[in-house]
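[step 3/7] inverse_fold.run input=structure_tokens len=326
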């Protein structure tokens, strides 16, 4: 008989799927690394499990312990899967910008969830960064994950996602495009692909209100770049250690409106029911059109599932209120 010994064994080995209608204007082949096939419906399952396993090996996470993490939702879901299977308690800290579905899903998986204000400085005691660190200190036998600076985040993608893309394209991949948040996916995949072929170009998709693009181009961390934005899962007002700017060839910024509109278009034109960052990612690919040639193979990674955005990007009333529908 063929079966997985538990749900964690089903993480990884996600398919590549050709984008057809939305990329018809491009001269190249565009393939989506479709991460919603992971059991937690996102790419974050990979790094969540890796971070927990490495913490166990290092003695940082002990039997019966509590896992504490700040998350926009998807890392929390991956942690919840592993915590349930392995018998840990999980405390997730998120922001009021995230969709209600994400909070409800985390609670459904048995996680304790704390919601913090988005529009505060990272070092403000009310921020979700500060709150997660405080809860980890206050909770007995707790381990603070810190996905932004935890090297196991990048390592997970160097060891799994990158090799999968290389093998699935039979080494023909020429460009990798992905939204950047913690930086683990772009850095891990990018490092692996460039180790196989240094000519592969790695592009990050950023959002307006985030510091990544300007910092990559100038080395300046500009506070004036930071302001609230709607797009979920990408962009930051900090510089996570997992963002390896030397691996990244460039960034393109996508507006909140374009990200939301293209999230809807992916569903309606490609039958791909995906999250908000996927809309940003495919619009980013289209914006990079001038960099692609006829024989290129562009892989764009889609992070998570549309079920987490039903009340937002897939709700026309919400879209109108945001000014995203004409």
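[step 3/7] decode complete -> sequence:
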């Amino acid at each position: 008989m063929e079966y997985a010994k538990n749900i964690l064994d089903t993480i990884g080995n996600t398919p590549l799927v050709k984008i057809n209608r939305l990329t018809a204007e491009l001269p190249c082949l565009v393939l989506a690394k479709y991460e919603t096939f992971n059991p937690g419906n996102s790419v974050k399952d990979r790094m969540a499990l890796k971070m927990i396993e490495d913490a166990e090996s290092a003695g940082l996470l002990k039997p019966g312990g509590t896992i504490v993490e700040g998350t926009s939702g998807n890392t929390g879901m991956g942690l919840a899967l592993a915590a349930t299977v392995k018998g840990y308690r999980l405390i997730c800290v998120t922001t009021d910008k995230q969709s209600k579905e994400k909070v409800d899903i985390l609670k459904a998986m048995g996680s304790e969830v704390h919601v913090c204000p988005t529009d505060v400085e990272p070092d403000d005691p009310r921020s979700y960064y500060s709150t997660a660190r405080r809860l980890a200190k206050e909770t007995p036998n707790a381990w603070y994950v810190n996905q932004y600076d935890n090297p196991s985040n990048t390592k997970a993608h160097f060891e799994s996602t990158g090799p999968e893309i290389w093998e699935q394209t039979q080494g023909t991949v020429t460009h990798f495009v992905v939204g950047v948040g913690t930086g683990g996916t772009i850095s891990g995949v990018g490092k692996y692909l460039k180790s196989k072929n240094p000519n592969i170009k790695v592009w990050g998709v950023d959002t307006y209100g985030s510091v990544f693009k300007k910092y990559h181009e100038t080395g300046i961390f500009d506070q004036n770049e930071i302001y609230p934005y709607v797009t979920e899962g990408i962009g930051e007002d900090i510089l996570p250690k997992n963002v390896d700017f030397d691996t990244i060839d460039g960034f393109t910024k996508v507006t909140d409106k374009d990200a939301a509109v293209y999230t809807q278009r992916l569903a309606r034109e490609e039958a791909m029911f995906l999250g908000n960052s996927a809309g940003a990612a495919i619009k980013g690919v289209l914006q990079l059109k001038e960099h692609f040639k006829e024989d290129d193979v562009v892989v764009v990674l889609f992070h998570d599932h549309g079920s987490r955005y039903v009340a937002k990007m897939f709700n026309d009333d919400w879209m109108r209120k945001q000014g995203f529908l004409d």
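[step 4/7] annotate
The longest helix spans residues 151-168.
The mean pLDDT is 96.
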